UniProtKB/TrEMBL annotation:
Signal peptide: none annotated. Pfam families: Flavoprotein (PF02441). The lineage of its organism: Bacteria, Pseudomonadati, Bacteroidota, Cytophagia, Cytophagales. This is Phosphopantothenoylcysteine decarboxylase/phosphopantothenate--cysteine ligase. InterPro entries: Flavin_trans-like, Flavoprotein.
Length: 186
């Protein structure tokens, strides 16, 4: 179902960012093309080298390349290229930016430019996840047509137990496969 599908994987700052490596492997194994966009805070949790090696593409982190070459990454082009945008893990900050149309990095600009389905898989601590402002942002994302892949229940990095764990990579791939198989039937 994912063969030749072009997937943008947005990775945000969260301890759950380590799961992005496994998610990329699963998507590549399913023969999808994967372009990773890493937020600045995400690189504190997982390196671009890891994700570039697994995706077989350079990881994008900023609008303009850091080597002073003048080359820039066109968020509009990325948004048109993709068959789906998956943000996993999605931080509370990025969810809020998406919900309110704020655009201060390559991932948020690509999200606002995307014409394809968007899947948001949040990961955050229990109290953050349950906060009314975050819940309202989830509601807004759904109202825009985005699909929220609910966080799982279990032990969190803080030691608390509750909802907030990033959905497992296999579950995220299943959601994508289900979407594209239903799309084929239409």
């Amino acid at each position: 179902m994912l063969r030749h599908k072009k997937i943008i994987l947005g990775v945000c700052g969260s301890i759950a960012a380590y799961k992005a490596a496994h998610l990329v492997r699963l998507l590549i194994k399913a023969e999808a093309e994967v372009q990773v966009i890493l937020t600045t805070s995400a690189s504190a949790f997982i390196t671009p080298v890891t994700l570039a090696t697994l995706s077989k593409r350079p990881v994008l982190t900023q609008f303009v390349r850091e080597d002073q070459s003048g080359l820039w990454h066109n968020h509009v082009e990325l948004g048109l290229w993709a068959d789906a945008v998956v943000v996993a893990p999605a931080s509370a900050s990025t969810v809020a930016k998406f919900a309110r149309g704020l655009c201060d990095n390559l991932l948020t600009a690509t999200y606002l430019s995307a014409r394809c389905p968007v899947f948001v898989a949040p990961a955050m601590d229990l109290d953050m996840y349950q906060h009314p402002a975050v819940q309202e942002n989830f509601r807004l994302l759904r109202s825009y047509g985005n699909q929220l892949i609910e966080a799982g229940y279990g032990e969190l990095a803080s030691g608390l137990v509750g909802q907030g764990r990033l959905a497992e990579p296999e579950e995220i791939v299943q959601v994508l496969e289900k979407h594209f198989s239903a799309e084929r039937l239409v």
